[in-house]
Amino acid sequence: MKTRHSTMLVGPTMSGKTVVLNILAECQSQMGMKTILYTLNPKAMNLVELYGFLDSPM
After folding, report:
1. Which pLDDT band holds residue 3 (cuts at 50, 70, 90)?
2. pTM over 0.70
3. Are 23 and 30 in contact, with CB atoms under 8 Å apart?
């Protein structure tokens, strides 16, 4: 997690994704790591805005 700028949580409906995300955020906050959650609408963004991009190898 220290090398990531964001995390994507995927899974079927009612599988506990929100519960897991909130528990992890609370644990990080209790450990002294400021944790901010942003909920995005992926349909409102293009792929580069959503995922970023990698430089192609030369």
Report:
1. low
2. no
3. no
